[in-house]
Amino acid sequence: MTAAAMPLQGVRVLDFSRVLAGPFCTMLLADLGAEVIKVEEPARGDETRQWGPPWAGAGEAALSAYYLCVNRNKKDITLNLKHPQAQALARRLAQQSQVVIENFKPGGMSAYGLSYEDLSALNPALVYCSITGFGQSGPYSERPGYDFVIQAMSGLMSITGPADGAPYKVGVAATDVLCGLYAATAVLAALRHAEQTGQGQHIDVSLLDVSLASLVNVASNALVGGQTPGRYGNAHPNIVPYQTFRASDQEFALAVGNDRQFAALCRLIERPEWAQDEHYATNPARVRHRDSLIADLQAIFVQRPAAKWVEALLALDVPCGPVNDVSTILRDPHVAARGLVQQVALANDTSVAVVGHPVKFSQTPPQIHSAPPLHGADTDSVLCALLDLSQDEIDQLQHEGVV
To answer: Which residues are the active-site residues?
Structure first.
């Protein structure tokens, strides 16, 4: 599959974002064929470049694993946006782009003459996406926002962790990742609108808004039921049994989503009468009597190894699976068959494994065509190709601290 066949071929994204939510969004767009030009400040660049160990490669070509995970398929240039000449270069690049993505605090880009109002005046069809902690408006809009703080404020931590323990954060920066997904979806919708009308727009995506929207059924429970949701550990507030259980050797996850599956479970464990018991026969009844049911199930499951339970339950089409650690699932034969873990060559030809794009396209599959770039690796080529600057002019800009 050539680059010309990619669905976002011809879309140029000028990426002023850093850390996770913004770079994750732009990586998704790059995987789908967009030309993404990552803009970093000259001194240190994206903070995640220093967020190691572990590191891939060595010496000046070493990249942190954190930076690697969200910056493939991009070009990289450096611009000192505090310098008027760099601001002018950025405006010229925006005129030749379809999308700008930034995650400065509200008003941060205005200080450089690079706000939506500034750039849309030069490029009316421009799709401009701002990713912030709390949005462009509201009493918290000026606050800095990192995933951990948002997980705490949004209620996500309040529903995560043991029922009788402290609130926990999710083990990955879930709000950042979800925000990147929402942002990418919004950009694609706005691009569609711009192609049809010639009119761009400003997209305002906030971590807090996304985190709250991502509470889905839990938020709905609070709104409809009028009660504050609590923590259930690995159990589910609305479905029983839907949690982890201890087998004789390790834990496994059991997800009984309907009464048919529960009846199949009852036959397997030689308790067919439970499927007719008024305390257990329906999911609402099982939710009301969860404590006794879970205790009875646990006493049975601990008698056999997890793999035996999983095999027997899957034979009955009852959803379940082992509780894997990350290294185990990365080596799983199904993951290998799906081609999810791929090899990419870094600048010094070091080969490193990365998790690829998870969506399969029948005609225009996403590709990893280039490794995450070194800091400023494409400054010269981008300024030469897009802005017709000579090497002497670029050297002078570098001497003056512009790039």
So the answer is: 176
